[in-house]
Amino acid sequence: MTLLAVERIKLFSTRSPWWCALVALATTVGFTALIVGNANEQFPATVATTQFGYFFGLAVVMVLAALAVTTEYRFGTIRTTFQAIPNRTAALVAKTVVVALLALVIGEIVAFASWGLSVLLQPDFDLALNSTADWINVAGVGPIYALAAVMAVAVGILVRHSAGAISLLLIYTLAVEDLVSLIPNIGDDIYKWMPFNVANKFLTGDGASNAGRAADAGAPLSTSPLSPGWALAYFAGTAVVLLAVAIATAKRRDA
Amino acid sequence: MIEARGLTKRYGKTTAVDDLSFDVAAGRVTGFLGPNGAGKSTTMRMILGLDNPTAGRVTINGKRYHELHHPLRTVGALLDAKWVHPNRSARAHLNWMAKSNQIAERRVDEVLDIVGLTSVAGKRAGGFSLGMSQRLGIAAALLGDPEVLLFDEPVNGLDPEGILWIRKFMHRLADEGRTVFVSSHLLSEMALTATELVVIGRGKLISQSSTADFVARASENTVKVRSPQNDRLRDALEQASAELTAAEDGLIVSGMDSAKIGEIAAENGLVLHELSPQQGSLEQAFMQITGDSVEYHTGIEAEVAQVLEPTAR
Amino acid sequence: MIEAHGLTKRYGDTLAVDGLSFDVTPGRVTGFLGPNGAGKSTTMRMILGLDRPTSGDVRIKGEHYRRLHHPLRTVGALLDAAWRHPGRSARNHLRWIARSNEIPQPRVDEMLALVGLTSVANKKAGGFSLGMLQRLGIASALLGDPEVLLFDEPVNGLDPEGIHWIRRLMHTLAEEGRTVFVSSHLLSEMAQTAQDLVVIGRGRLIYQGTTDEFIDRATKQTVRVRSPQLDAVREALRGYGATFEEEDGAILVSGMDSNEVGELVFAAGATLHELSPQRGSLEQAFMQLTGEAVEYHAGQGA
User: Fold this and answer.
1) Å from A108 to nearest chain B CA?
2) What's the CA gap between C30 and C182, in Å, rounded?
3) What is the mean pLDDT of each run of 10 residues along chain B (313 residues)?
4) What is the domain extent for residue C80?
5) C132 and C14 share a domain?
6) Closest in B117, B135, B265 to C272, CB measured
7) In this complex, which of B83, B95, B102 lies closest to A80 when CB atoms are compared?
């Protein structure tokens, strides 16, 4: 608990988490408003469409998470950290947990704010959270943000430079997974197992939260063959493995 | 008490620290000297468990750094005053450090007061001058009331008052029985601060001794004499086979102590206007001893080598 | 030759430099001392025409900096070694400076050799250590072979050999008849470097003159006497009405110079084992005379 308190002090004694949370909220909610506000009989608003902008918040949260560690390297405070807490595993895990918790909170706020705004904008559509699938689609954003933050922290530990870590993360999430599916023959098979595609499976499942709307009119559903539960486990597993690799590297390395 | 035994650090082909053994005793201020690139920073970082030695070990009160429970309560260090997040306030920086080693929060205000930063404790550290950052670094080092203190160039950025303050402060910490290990390039300052010296060159130990011994070993002791009967004094001293050099207003005598010269003057009934033993400077001694050493690599060459071969940190 | 007359700089309500007048003469190394916030940097910047004085003026060889033709050939300055583009090589950094003042290009390589940076001349300055940047800064100050040199904390980042080197360099430059003006906080270092001092506090002149006189003025001078016949010495001193105290078997006499003490001891028929005039340090003198003009007074408790 002590180490969590330490990382909490560190995180909230700079202004960047507040700015990131605000940007995540603004972009995601703004985008949702744009999509949902333009919904009509032909393109109806569904619970799934209220979360259309989730990806923007995800990117911002990953940047925040990566910065939480790369700025420590940039400003040399990582050395003070390891000096205060020579057990590097404990120090880095504590940091990851705190950042992940913050990401979780941001995720829930962003998701429910988007949903709430949609309900206000389109009272005529049925946006009530009636099923488990509906609930997962909205409340599941938090856990996905948290796990994505873990991955971003891991990448931050490995890369150490802000610019490098952030470009790597953004290029990967925005382009690499989609580009993989363009590889002839095997591309689609690999894509099925790409982490963010799998995460999408957890959120949208087989399209139940998109009910009442033609599947081909909304966002494409995830091609992952996993069930939503296993999809979450797979995504979490990827994050944990990445973090383990990062921490093992940090332990070996000179600070 | 810091003990290094066979401490070695290699980066690729470059050996930064090479089989280094030394002790830093409690109750004194020990200076850590060497040219740029001699391996001082690497050694400091290995003491703090930030870098892993390739071979050998360094212990603090018998334990390696990572074996210490709540290490900030045993070892306080100021390595680089710029190692502070620029957007974090001075107090927040100390708060998280205190929390990590379960140091009472009251202590944060105490150390801020000791270094004179209370009035700017809530301000962003990024806006601090080098001198203020340095004071914050000193506050961080003192936070855990540690028995062992490591300072790397502590007077960096401080003004004359700050320099005097930190020197007196280090003396007081040593008087309280703590181990104080200070690395610096400012020999004239170190001569006033350190009573013991560890001198390294190219990663190897060149000397470990008291500052007085170090200076005495290298510099020839001379005595300056002035007399209104200068010529007679010269003759008398020459007869006693002293080596003389003429100075602007008197004589510089080598190979004879001031008491002996005084006796000779008295025997010959000569008035003396001055009879001062001249002490060599730490700088002279340092240049002489490290200059003789094969291990000594002139600082600029070592620095230049690091730019040419970036692996040689 | 640098002459400041009534130099004043106001930032809003703050008076950084307040009616400052001083001269820096050629052929000597002049130290520029003052606590943090005393206005040293501002003064240096006004000398170089970077900041404009609110009132008063400062001239170099009778001219304002901005009116100098090819100023780098008259004034060389090292203010902050970090003022360079990290992506530019050391040689290119000096080349553009040389070009701007029509300084012949071979001078660039000469200066790189002088400061010991020849082998890294084509490397990016971004990878340089502080000590190397400092040397690059010194090379650029010397580039125009200027008669007037300004250095701000020149030993910053240099190691003992580098410190020794720059001190000798400054003495050589002064012996060549140049004006050398050096600002520093390291008083133990300045005591060995500067023959003259300009001391300021809170933007005002506190002292201008020789270093020796500065120390003599502020610190008590004593003469240390050791003798096998201490009783006789004591008696003689008492008889003369001298003030003295004792310390580790020696007598410290104040208010008399060593000549007088020597004569007195001789008259008393005592043998001397030591008779050394004890001087205060530049630091003691500085603390004495600038006492109240400091930025942050550190607390005393631990």
Assistant:
1) 27
2) 6
3) 95 89 96 88 93 94 93 93 86 93 94 92 88 91 95 90 91 96 93 94 91 84 89 89 84 88 91 89 85 56 66 43
4) 2-209
5) yes
6) B265
7) B83
